[in-house]
Design brief:
mainly alpha; 1% strand; two-stranded parallel sheet; 2 strands
Length: 362
């Protein structure tokens, strides 16, 4: 038995030794983006409760579960009934979206994070900063698994869905940080990710607050999309009536904060948009007579453009309503663009306030 354990440990060491941490981290970032996208797909197809138990799905590890099998499972587990009741039946596609989401996150993403952490931890040439980032990524993936379980247990409560999304974004941002640190260890950080440390004192805090603002709008949007009836909070009257106005008013009175959460979301989007446009203008003026902040200016300009495009996508979603409802693929695009905008801003903040200061502290 001891010999078998020793052989398994030696095999694991060889596998981790063959891992390229930078390439693995890039792969982890790509998989995380895919998982977030699948999570959005689950929401628009209303499949968030299609696997009522965890980590199994209707007591199995498969997804092709017939309506009869679902009924049998509900009879055996009546206490697991979700918000739709035990009489509701899910399609195989709905179950598949939740199943593949769990598979990628639990069976692929989680083990890869652990393997990457061990590989980085065992290398003497890797800096303590990179090892710290790898450890944080490990902690966050464990946390994300716990939040995923909690979301299932609470039948996709609004705040648990927002927490699940926020944790995923924090994990992805940690992976970006890890990748940057590993690139700096090898002195191979791409020029598009390098920022002047002299810009940190002035623009670091501003960029940090703008990033937080973008994250808040993302959370408020997730709350709207997971609250029954909230998408109708500003009416369905079409151009002018339901967008850009809300039931024909710019500042309607709030009587039900949940149902009218779309109003609050729009106010937040407008405020953060003005802040982002103002920041872009100030950086442009700051760089007008010098070159030190050009890279930062480019990142903020791209983020602002993405933000404006996403406002247009949100408007198209509201205006897309017809007798069959809203065009939900626009909702998925809206979510992914919001996540991309936040990630772009937060990556710029990381490069400016964390990575650039690594050079500035030498």
């Amino acid at each position: 038995m001891i010999i078998l354990l020793w052989l398994r440990r030696e095999t694991f060491k060889k596998v981790s030794g063959a891992v390229n941490p930078r390439k693995t981290t890039v792969a982890l970032i790509v998989i995380t983006v895919i998982v977030i996208g699948i999570g959005g797909t689950i929401r628009i197809y209303d499949a968030g409760e299609s696997c009522p138990d965890w980590p199994t799905c209707f007591g199995t590890f498969g997804f092709d579960i017939s309506e009869e099998e679902q009924g049998e499972w509900w009879e055996e587990n009546p206490e697991e009934a979700d918000s739709r009741g035990s009489g509701h039946r899910y399609t195989s596609f709905q179950i598949f979206t939740e199943w593949i989401h769990r598979l990628l996150a639990g069976a692929i993403l989680g083990p890869l994070v652990i393997l990457n952490w061990i590989a980085i931890r065992s290398r003497d040439e890797v800096s303590p900063r990179s090892k710290k980032a790898a450890l944080v990524s490990l902690i966050l993936i464990i946390w994300q698994g716990a939040v995923g379980w909690l979301t299932v247990e609470l039948d996709n409560e609004h705040w648990s869905v927002a927490l699940h999304l926020g944790s995923a974004l924090a994990f992805m941002l940690c992976l970006v940080w890890l990748w940057m640190e590993l690139c700096k260890d090898d002195d191979e950080l791409p020029s598009w990710a390098e920022f002047d440390p002299l810009m940190t004192k002035k623009w670091g805090p501003i960029l940090g607050w703008v990033s937080i603002g973008a994250l808040v709008t993302l959370f408020s949007g997730a709350f709207v999309s997971t609250t029954p009836g909230a998408n109708y909070g500003c009416g369905i009257g079409g151009m002018g009536e339901s967008w850009p106005l809300c039931n024909g008013e710019l500042f309607p009175s709030i009587e039900d904060w949940e149902i009218q959460s779309q109003v609050v979301h729009r106010w937040l989007v407008g405020a953060v948009g003005l802040l982002l446009i103002s920041t872009s203008y100030m950086i442009w003026k700051d760089c007008e007579h010098g070159q030190s902040g050009v890279m930062l200016k480019n990142w903020v300009f791209i983020s602002t453009l993405m933000y404006v495009v996403n406002v247009a996508i949100g408007a198209l979603y509201i205006l897309s309503w017809d007798s069959d409802g809203f065009f939900e693929l626009l909702s998925l695009a809206h979510l992914m663009m919001a996540a991309a905008t936040f990630s772009t801003l937060a990556t710029a903040w990381l490069g400016l306030s964390v990575i650039a200061m690594r050079d500035g502290s030498h």
